[in-house]
Amino acid sequence: MGRNSVKARLIAAAAALAAMAGLAAGGAGPAAGAAWSAQPVTAPAMAVPAATGSSAVRPGPKLNGPKATSVLKALKVKGKASGTGYSRNAKFGNGWKDFDGDRCNERQDTLSRDMSKVRFSDTQKCWVASGTLHDRYTGRTIRWRTGTGSVDIDHVVALQNAWISGAQQLSQAQRLKLANDPLNLIAADSSANRAKGSSNAAEWLPRNKAFRCQYVATQVSVKRKYALSVTAAEKAAMSRVLASCPSQKAARVTPIKPAGKTATATPGSSTSGTVSGTITPGAFCKAADKGKKGRSASGATYACKASSTDSRLRWRR
After folding, report:
1. Is 250 among the domain residues?
2. Using CA atoms, how far apart are residues 107 and 29, in angstroms rounded to an integer?
3. Cα–Cα dist 305/284, whole Å
4. pTM score > 0.70 for this model?
5. To 10 degrees, what angle do helices 212-225 and 232-243 make?
6. In the chain, at which residue ranges do the beta strands (DSSP E only) sit?
7. φ, ψ at 183 (rounded to 5°)
8. In a shared domain, residues 213 and 309
9. What is the pLDDT of residues 36-77, one digit of tens each?
10. For residues 124 and 135, is the Cβ–Cβ distance under 8 A?
């Protein structure tokens, strides 16, 4: 008997033993007259791996600009403005946007930037399915997957804090950028994020002291970029943190010029039927602006109206 023939018989015998073992363990055999090869074989759903490897990733934006202490000195010191009129969705956009034009929204981009061992649920590598976060707020390592609720995307400068420190003078388009700017986003332990709320640096700092310099440097970078102010107490707290790390860098930013209403203007007060400032196409608009027109950042004109399929008022063409 040839070697190949012996090998073939051994393989066949092993397969037969395996099948018998499966039946003995309660496995089901093929239906009468059916062949095993006819049974459907489907591979388990697999997440698409990202480019990030197994090594730890340091969450947060890169800070490679001027010293944070010099940026802090450039910020205006003012008291808190009134919080009247604040609405997260109405003033900063409803849902995450695609800030950088890569066709993935900024929540997903931040998750993939800030975690290691990232796996995606789509071939485009947009929707993060799981990953490991070395959380900077608490120092904990979090093994996260979709639906666990253990990781949030935090606005380092909270949007409500931004509202009372100058964002009321920004246009809607500028506020939308602030809410989706990777500079102002970090993946963080959800409990720590929710404990922070809308607090400024005088009211809340990360429990992980090793991260406080980067945290404050990121805040001063965001406030500088979006023409936001700090309170006297907030600046003092930031100065104390940065005194322990005088070489800490901030981000390299170009301050914007606020393009929204002035401090005394009343939204939608134009008698010409055109609202002041710029509007965001598709965003909700107020009942007081129904029938009025607004211009987007690109100069296109939209009207505040409902549609035949949606009774809610939005800026539409």
Report:
1. no
2. 47
3. 9
4. no
5. 130
6. 48-49, 116-120, 128-134, 141-145, 151-155, 185-189, 274-278, 293-295, 301-305, 314-316
7. -60, -30
8. no
9. 222 332 233 345 555 556 678 999 999 999 999 999 999 999
10. no
Residues 101 and 233 in one domain: yes
Q: Rounded CA gap, 230 and 203, in Å?
A: 12
Unique residue bearing structure tokens 């904990």: 140
Residue 169 lies in a domain: yes
Question: How far, in Å, CA of 25 to CA of 254, rounded?
Answer: 69
Give domain status of residue 164, yes or no. Answer: yes
Residue 234's domain comprises: 48-243
| pLDDT tens figures, 18-34 | 444 343 333 333 333 33
234 and 86 both lie in a single domain: yes
Task: Look up residue 9 and give its amino acid.
Answer: R
For the segment 169-226, what is each residue's pLDDT rounded down to a tens digit? 999 999 999 999 999 999 999 999 999 999 999 999 999 999 999 999 999 999 999 9
Alpha helices by DSSP H, the chain:
3-24, 68-74, 88-92, 106-114, 159-163, 172-180, 190-196, 212-225, 232-243
Greatest CA separation found in the chain? 101
Say whether both 180 and 114 belong to one domain.
yes
SS3 209: helix
Residue 43 lies in a domain: no
**Number of Cβ within a 10 Å radius of residue 216:** 26
Q: Are residues 144 and 281 in the same domain?
A: no
Question: 97-104: long-range contacts at Cβ-Cβ below 8 A with a sequence spacing of 24 or more?
Answer: 97/176, 97/179, 97/180, 98/180, 99/177, 99/180, 99/181, 99/182, 100/182
Number of domains present in the structure of the chain: 2
Provide the β-strand partners of residue 284. Answer: 314
* Final residue of a structural domain among 221, 243, 265: 243
- Quick one: which of 19, 14, 38 has its CA closest to 29? 19
Instruction: For residues 224 and 119, state if they share a domain.
Output: yes
Among 74, 297, 76, which residue's Cα sits nearest to residue 174? 297
